[in-house]
Amino acid sequence: MKQALVQHISEFPRLELQDAVKFLHQSNMGPGHLIEDTQASLSRLGKEYQDFVPDPSLPLTTMLGRGLCRLNLARCSAMDLPPEMINRLFIATASGFAGDSDALLRDLAVLESLPHFEGAGSAAFLTEYRAKGMPAIGHSAAFRQAYHPAYRVVCQSYVDVLPIILLIDHMSADRAGPLLVAIDGPCGSGKTHLGKLLQELYHCTLHHMDDFFLPPWRKTPLRLSQPGGNIDYERFLTQVLLPLTQNRAYEYQRWNCRLGALEMPQACSPGPITVIEGTYSLHPALRAYYDLRIFCSAPWPVRAEHLQSRGGPALYKRFLSEWIPLEDAYFSVCDVEKCCQATLNSARE
After folding, report:
1. Where would I find the H helices in 261-338?
2. Which of 53, 180, 226, 271 is most buried when burial is the number of CB atoms within 10 A of its CB?
């Protein structure tokens, strides 16, 4: 955090102590204190949009740390990002971020140690601030005059996938039936991460292709010689995709690898958006049923780190010797990336 503070001071040299305290409060406590309700939040944002000139020269974000950033509204306006979308990111961030007052207290001590804020006045300000319970505070008049701050605190992860969000918003607008989104790509490339982000933002159903692993008794040499044959795409098509395309309720069963059996059926109803993530979700037998097809990729060192963190050396060895060769054949023969309307290079899953 000391490095983040020093960087923030260098970016905004005219900030005052209370601006640095605000930076730390936002970083540790998130934006929840600003939430009234969704509609009131949107109304407030719409009014702010009318009060400034769009500026494409400004950076889109200012990093806060803890996975948060300030999303610059003047830059968003210049990019024609709608207030409704920005408000959704803001609400989702506030709803999902757990504040940490102990971390804020520690970071205030770091701030107090910086030469930039030495002096009795700074010490007295921070002592009084702690005594008040470390509440949310506003920017100083000097900061407002110098930098005209207009932003929303949001998760950086949401900003990283803005092109995907815009595409989904555009495709789902005024749509009669459900929008079906598939996320495919090699293991460790960020599919699960993206799926969870979309679930948070749209409160939509999220299906995992891992729940449709091919049962051991069907893993014949002939079946595994077929590109994409390592998944029970027939069951997924019958239980999930076909009912979704017909906009009707359905039941499906997850394959439990630990038990080696199918679990009890789960009932689902189609919502406005359904996301399916996982390798083989864009199998040739399935891809025509989707409205939006997304391909995730990541450099091998990033993927390897993710895979090693999942289940230790034994599971990683199985990825290398068993599952990745099957995936590679699937991607090579089935031209999965070419069928996608969007791609995302990710560093997390």
Report:
1. 300-318, 324-334
2. 180
Identify the CA nearest to 22 among candidates 116, 135, 98.
135
Q: What is the pTM of this model?
A: 0.88
Report which of 44, 342, 32, 346 is spatially closest to residue 197, judged by C-alpha positions.
Answer: 346
Q: Are residues 146 and 170 in the same domain?
A: no
The pLDDT tens digits for 63-120 are: 998 999 999 999 999 998 999 999 999 999 998 898 999 999 999 999 998 888 877 7
* Percent share of the chain, pLDDT over 70: 98
Token duo for residue 207: 């299906």
Question: Are 305 and 173 members of one domain?
Answer: yes
Following DSSP, what letter does each residue of 181-196 receive, concatenated?
EEEE-STTSSHHHHHH
First to last CA, the chain: 24
Parent domain of 202? 162-345
Instruction: pLDDT band for 349, please (50, 70, 90 cuts).
Output: very low
Strand ranges, E, within the chain: 61-65, 68-72, 151-155, 179-184, 205-208, 250-252, 255-256, 261-262, 266-268, 273-277, 292-297, 342-345
Mark whether 143 and 200 lie in a shared domain.
no
Structure tokens at 298: 């990541």
SS3 of 6, please? helix
